[in-house]
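Hey L., structure's done. Input below.
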Amino acid sequence: MSMDRDLVAREYIARAQARGAARDLATARAMFAALDDEIPARVKKSPPLSLDERAGEIFWTMLFADGWARLALARDDAAVQSLYQKFRRGQFNRLFDDTRPALDALKSRGLQLGVLSNFTANCGEVLRTLGIANYFSSIVVSALVRAEKPARAIFDHATRESKCAPREIILVGDSIHHDVDGARDAGWDAILLDRDNWYPNYSAAPRIRKLTEIVNLV
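Output:
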């Protein structure tokens, strides 16, 4: 899943219009696209967001406030808080087109599916908002375990939750460091999801471009 930039842009427009300011979709979309691209660099300068709820709230509130300012809108804490709350509930998220087909195919094989994520405590709520929570028998998130991938502790916790042996578990993730390396260090297998072809020469683990490719690997 990822944030749908158009949904966020439209919400900025709606909040602005409610305050008597008109902004067009192209301008709002371009603003948030640039802001969204800055998130990885911003995260690197912040404490672990999923382990400190207050730090996460400050990070995302400041991000949405920056977007508000970039649209040349007068400061409005209520509007920014509205944007943050929609984000927190997962209302800006969208599923990639291949998500449900992949989950359906894996479920049809009788495989047990779970979530292991560096995420805040409301991960289950977000998955329910997206309509996919029912696919998963376990949801393990860093905010509750108090450890973030690639720490061995969160993988060991997920192993216990799954009631499987480490060698029976395969992690599919988009980070070499957090997902693939963390999983293999814990005795799991791993598959790198490289949607944007950032790692064309990576060969330490199987690499896929779409989730539906998993079906041919398990």
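The domain at 96-216 is CATH 3.40.50.1000 (Rossmann fold). The longest helix spans residues 25-44.

-- N.
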